[in-house]
TrEMBL record, chain A:
Gene source species: Fervidicella metallireducens AeB
Record keyword Cell membrane present: no
Gene Ontology biological process terms, A to Z: glycogen biosynthetic process
Protein name: Glucose-1-phosphate adenylyltransferase
Top-rank taxon, per record: Bacteria
SUPFAM superfamilies: Nucleotide-diphospho-sugar transferases, Trimeric LpxA-like enzymes
UniProtKB/TrEMBL annotation, chain B:
Species whose genome carries this gene: Fervidicella metallireducens AeB
Protein name: Glucose-1-phosphate adenylyltransferase
Nucleotidyl transferase domain mapped to chain residues: 7-260
Domain Glucose-1-phosphate adenylyltransferase/Bifunctional protein GlmU-like C-terminal hexapeptide: 289-361
UniProt cross-references to HAMAP family, sorted A to Z: GlgC (MF_00624)
Taxonomic lineage from the root: Bacteria, Bacillati, Bacillota, Clostridia, Eubacteriales
Pfam families found in the cross-reference section: Hexapep_GlmU, NTP_transferase
GO biological process entries: glycogen biosynthetic process
Amino acid sequence: MRDAMGIINLHDTSNGLLELTNHRPVAAIPFLGRYRIIDFALSNMVNSGIVNIGIFIQEKPRPLTEHLGTGAAWNLDRKKDGLFVFYPYYNSANSMYMTEMRSFRENIEYIKKSNQKYVIISPSYMICNINYSDALNYHRKTGADITIIYKKINDANVNFLNCQSLEINNEGRVIGFSTNMGEKSEKNISMEMYIMKREFLLQLINKSSQLSILYSLKDTINCFCKEININVFEHSGYLECINSIKTYFHKSIELLDVEKTKQLFKKESPIYTVTKDNPPTKYGKNAIVKNSFIANGAVIEGVVKNSIIFRGVKIGTGAVVKNCIIMGKCVIAEGVYMENTIADKHTVISRVKKIIGYYDEPIVLEKNSIV
Amino acid sequence: MKKEIIAMLLAGGKGTRLGPLTKKLAKPAVYFGGKYRIIDFPLSNCANSHIDIVGVLTQYESILLNSHIGVGANWGLNTLKGGVTILPPRETEQGGQWYRGTADAIYQNIDFIDNHNPENVLILSGDHIYKMDYSLMLDFHTEKEGDATIAVIEVPIKEASRFGIMNTDETNRICEFEEKPQYPQNNLASMGIYIFKWSVLRDFLCEDAKDSQSEHDFGKNIIPKMLHEGKRMFAYKFNGYWKDVGTIESLWEANMDLLKDDNSLNLYDNNWKIYTDNVECLPQYVSNDAVIKNSIISQGSMIYGEVHNSIIFSEVYIGKGTKVVDSVIMPKSRIEDGAIIEKSIVDSEVVINKNSKIGNKDGKEIFLISQCETEEI
């Protein structure tokens, strides 16, 4: 895998994440107690042996750059290659113009100067644990221009809504793209992971600028679909797409099923993240905790059920937290009752004693809110 | 450029009284407090006190300790031109030999210290659990214009005969030092933390090295000799939590101290974090059947049973129907279904079989289940 470089594409289609993305890109949304969404894409590449990874930030860079640091947490703080973070050269007031193709063009030198033969492009919001070696070998063997990694699903009517689905012919070639609107249950969901030669990506970038400056990578590939040979490689493991508040909430809570978690977190391919050097979790004399993930640094004095508690959270005596996601350093004061709620980082809940959302429509408390 | 202070951390001891826990591990590498090793405390104190050059003197079973410390990156000590240097005994032009005592270990590394050209040297040991700002002690040392400053803590007078006891005058100048006195006159015990003016200590070390009668020990030889020769030595009083964890019993007690509401070793202070090597695993999972009361549990553990008043380290599995009471379970151990563990220390990577019963919560002894054997202490 040393002959492949990685690109993490932050042009995630995510207009459904509202409050969680007001201050951060999708890639930087906290996930499952101690991770951020991008940790999966990064760890997958690193675990596959890729050591040259470029991240093209489109907007709201602070939370992400703070998280990434030097890349040391993913073993990417290297003399040769390593982690490279790019920003748009010029900001456009209209986000329509802020495509990843534009970022690629502005930082084309990085892609040109990298010396790997292949490039693997991945979005951040597809949560999975995948080793790219098999896909790359398959790509080499078929000699396709592009190989797209996808997953066959049979619950497309309720899952992976708004994701891209692929039309694949008998020879395994992609002949069309569409958006999953949930009209039928069997679909081939594109994981938006592309394998191609680095030279081919350079050509695509070049060509797309002649087409339209509004074109994203997806649009560009779609446009050339008939002229180029696009192959597919099937992923059969765990996959979820975090593209709305509902999917974020449901997919997090569903991971409380330990059997499901085992498919995503594997001993041989760990998911790396930044450590916060927190002490272990302290459970008080009155704590009652059932079916929950609790991260280090939390202090639990109250009741926690079916919930995900992040690092450094404090839950006071008599407080009840049910079906909730409580992000880093939140404080839930004594006697507060919460159900089906996502509390973003640093939220303090003390005055309002009852916060109840619905499982299909959880309440989201924005970062730093005091209620 | 002259350096104001560098630290030398003595981490070569075997810790015989910790029994099988130190069979394949130096004492400073013994686990403590749910995710740490003992040595993380002095190292973190150095980092938090802005001491950026630390020599760690290793000897007994040093491989694990070396890889744990590495270049000191976990403590943020891997600075440009600074950082942690591991100093095992080495061969020189005059031959080579083991460190014969705490003073000899420093003596054999005089060239390392000289290279940094420090005004003062801080001598630490890897045996104690405490949080201390060494920079305040250095301020005291500088203000007193002392040749040596010894950190002291008040201990109950009935325990004073276990320690090195200082007798001081009203300016905190030490007038007498007694190592483990039978009839202590005072309760100010040495914490084994010293700041020496390097030029002064250097002479005493060289002299001590030539003395064939000497045990080459700071407490037994260097400090009494300095005092005898009238050097300016001061006692620096420390008021926080400090505990020697040299025995199974004290190691268990120190862990249990963390569960007390009024415990003064606050691990949750963001301004004085204790750093360690981190593990890559999920947050801890607490199942529907779990009951957890007054306990500390670390990342990656899976709790299906009952845990009361206990410390559970990273990646421990506590099976269904188990009951863990007043105990310390070290990393990666598995407590299989139905087992009952009371007042025990379970070493790392140990499997406790189904339905076994270990320890007695009303008994006096602490049970130790080690990797190599099961043994009652």
